[in-house]
Every structure is written in C-alpha cells, then in structure tokens.
Amino acid sequence: MDTLTHALSGALLARATAPRESTPGTLSLRRRIAANALAAAFPDIDFVLGFVSPSAYLLYHRGITHSLILLPIWAIALAWVFARVDPARPRWQAYFGVVAASLGIHILGDLITSFGTVMLAPFSDRRFALDTTFIIDLWFTGIIVAGLCAALVWRHSRIPAIVGLATLAGYVGLQGYAHGVAVDFGEDYARANGVPDARVTAQPRPVSPFNWMVVVEDGEEFRYAFVNLIRQVPRPNPGPDAGLVERLDAAYAPLAQAEWGRAERFGPPSARAQAMEAWQAAPLGFFRWFAAYPVLHRIEHAAAARCVWFRDLRFLTPGRDAWPFQFGVCRNGVESGWSAFQLVDGAVRLPLP
After folding, report:
1. In whole angstroms, what separates CA 70 from the centre of its chain?
2. Cα 50 from Cα 115, distance rounded (Å)
3. Number of helices (H) and strands (E), helices first, in the chain?
4. What is the CA radius of gyration of the chain?
5. What was the pLDDT predicted at 271?
6. Omega cis (within 30) before 72
7. Which of 148, 157, 289, 297 would bridge 309 by S-S if both were Cys, CB 3.0 to 4.6 A apart?
8. pLDDT digits (tens, 9 = 90+) for 297-337
C-alpha cells in the first residue's frame, strides 16, 4: 500500500477503537488519531534505502520496520517519542497500544499486496504476500476516506469508523474470492493444455478488483493472461487521447476471450546458455531472491562486452509505459567478472554498488 493509505487506515482504526468517554490517563481523540496516523505511516521510513541503492531497496524495503517480531520494540520507541512531545506529558504506556495497533494494520496492509512483506525479519528473509490487492487500490483507499468523512460528520459516534473498517474487510474478502476464481481459471487452462502439474498463481491489477493477471508456470516457461472476471464484452482499444484509467483497464478481457502470452525465463534456445550463466552470477543474487516471475529481457553485445537483462512479469502492467525493476549483469570479455546494473527506461544503465 502507498504511505498515505497506510496513514489514513491508522486514523480510521483510531476512531473505531477510541473509548466512548475520556478518563484520566487516556489520550484525547485528536491525539489518538494523530498518533495512529503517524505510527501507521512509520514503517515506510525505510524508503530511504532507495537513496542507498536499488538493490538495497529490493533487499530491505518492507523488512525490519515491517517485522511482527520487532513490532513491540518499534511500538515502545514511538510511544516514548509521542509521550515526550505531548504537552500533557502522559506516560509512554498511554501511547503503546494505539501505536502497536497502527504498526500492525500497516503490516497487514502490505501483506495483502503482491509485493509482500518480510514479516519475520531479521530472522527470516521469507517474503509473505496474499496477492489479493494491487499496491495502489483506489477502491481500498476510497473506503477508508468515506469512513473518515462519515466519522467527521457523526463525530460523537464510533459506528461510522467501525462500519468503514468492516466494509474494508469485506472488500478484501471479495478480492480474496476473486483471487480464487482467477486461480481456478488458470488451473482449467493448464489442464486443457496438457500441463496439469503447472504452478498457477494470480496477481491483482489496477482499476478493478476483478482485473487479474493469471500466470501458469511450467518449468522455465510462463504463460500469462490479463482477464476481468465479470466482464462479458472486451473494452475497445484506447485511443491516443485516452486517460490513464481507461488505458490501464482496457487490456483485461472476458474469461471466454482470454489471450495467453508466453515468456521464457532464459529466452529462446539460442540464448539460454548465456542467460543461465548470467542469472547465476553472484552480483544478481538480490534479484534472484526478489523476482517472482523472472524472464529474460534481452542480451546485448558490443565488441567483447556483454549485458544480460532480466525483468519480473509481476510488474508487467498493460497501459503503463514504464516497467520497473529491470536488472542485469554486464562484463567486458570472457575473463572479466560480472557487474550488476539497473536498466531504466529501456536504455539507461546504472551501475549498482
């Protein structure tokens, strides 16, 4: 989830869980909401890793600041800071519960996305992802905003915020059901095409909770389709003046008209030996860990130099010009070692430290 949505979810949680009446030692509603919003945004402070290097960002973003194991430590630290800056000078324990709850809702918000989160850091680097919700979901954010607006109108009642949280949970439940339908569709395709043992997954896509990318992984080959689970008629191709939402939504076909693309992890037979060698290069280890559906993008030759580039199909989004997280390795001559680079906008090669 984006950081703003995290902060808003913290604010909605604060209003829904606020005590009916203030008592000595409890936080005022305004301070409770402010603390929840700030705490719910806090884990994304690790965005600074992007200024270190792209590889550091992939390896450590949604790591220790998103860890369930370290949550109590972060909660104590933030509660102490909030208590120190609060003019009323409450004990830090007054903030601990609301801060811990907000950190938890942040982790949960990232868990439901396809990017996932390393919840057991620093003891495990396993990335957990439920794959139900696109990383920027305007419906998800809209439900939170509607709940907060209703809570502002009926400011003396917790019910609007509680209803907002319940609606949000129901929406994610709908997405979970849609995820299952998308996987079932992929499994039917796999059986019909002679690959019943293939690994079938589905990735949420933007604009609608019914837009999905279904992926059938058969060995080193990926077959994928962009589908809308309830659409009966395909959208027309967007024109050059079409808006972003229209462009993003147009590619998702009805199930009966799904078109399946194919991509090879190591490319065509003529490229596989070179691609496999580059893929196993030590400097590319961070991308091997991160990529869910790695595929060869291209191999470049210039005199004795060679570069091998890879992409992650997880970030293929029709209607969007950019394809993020493209990495590869280059070397100058057979005897030299591989060095890692990032490919930006299809042409700019940025060396990684």
Report:
1. 21
2. 16
3. 11, 10
4. 23
5. 93
6. no
7. 297
8. 999 988 778 999 999 999 999 988 889 999 999 998 777 88
Residue 327: other Cβ atoms inside 10 A: 26
DSSP secondary-structure letter at 256? G
Q: Which single residue is written with the structure tokens 């620093």?
A: 122
CA 225 to CA 234: how far, in whole Å? 14
Quick one: which of 199, 218, 202 has its CA closest to 210? 202
Helix, strand, coil in percent for the chain, rounding step 5? 45, 20, 35
3-state secondary structure of 33: helix
Whole-angstrom distance, CA of residue 267 vs CA of residue 299:
10
Q: What is the pLDDT of residues 269-300, one digit of tens each?
A: 999 999 999 999 999 999 999 999 999 999 99
Buried b (16+ CB within 10 A) or exposed e, 182-217: bbebbeebbeeeebeebebbbbbbbbbbbbbbbbbb
Residue 52: which pLDDT band, with cuts at 50, 70 and 90? confident
The tokens of 17 are what? 């869980």
CA distance 295 to 263: 7
Backbone angle region of 277, left / alpha / beta, with phi > 0 → left and psi within -120 to 50 → alpha: alpha
Per-residue H/E/C for 8-21:
HHHHHHHHHHCCCC
Report the chain's terminal Cα–Cα distance, integer Å. 28
Alpha-carbon span 343 to 353, nearest angstrom: 14
Give bridge partners of residue 202 from the DSSP assignment: 214
Q: What distances in angstroms separate CA 113 from CA 1, 80, 216, 297, one per listed residue?
A: 7, 31, 19, 25
What does pLDDT average to over the chain?
Answer: 93
Distances from the Cα of 137 to the Cαs of 70, 172, 254, 308, in angstroms? 27, 11, 21, 34
Six token digits for residue 55: 């590889």
